[in-house]
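Contributing new records

If you add data, match the layout below exactly. Sequence lines come first and carry their own label; structure lines follow with theirs. Keep one chain per record. Anything else will be rejected by the validation script.
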Amino acid sequence: MASLIITDANSTLLRSGNWLLAIHGVGTYWQCPHSVDLLRRWDMEIASVLKSNSSLQFHNNSVYNIALIDGCENTRIAALLEVQAYPTVKLIQQGLVWTYRESLNFTSESIVEFAADGWKQHMWYNKLPPTWSVWFKLQLDLFNFACAAIVYIENAIGSLSTSPSTSNLLTFLVFVLVSVGAGVLLPFGIIYLL
């Protein structure tokens, strides 16, 4: 059972109905390993359980729409949903958005529990905004660029060491360079455009 694919072009579908969404970071230029793991389980272990269990319904006997969003390629819809990390699981019902917050417990069972009743325990939710935020989109674009840069550097020069500390240092340096570059150059670019 394949999930629906939501893109920037068809994102208005999220305005009606109840949705369970997985926003993943498996794009063209880099692949988040946690997203790859979630995608491997999404249709077989999560979507199929939710679709086959008729007791898992929301208000007015409506059922789940289950979908995937590639946050690397569709940053506008990811910004609309205020995605801050990959993968992110969101539940939308009647214009309210709940975010799955158990980042250390990303099991199929815990996601099904969140979709069934667990969302009621999450005190934090927000309304689906009318449009995407420029700042969230900028954050996602910079994050995706930094991750793609890390992958490119590792492929171009090879891993400097099998040591995790060296790999972490390389990752840290790329993020610092991208952040400083964006923090210094971006404001000047915006002022120049004005």
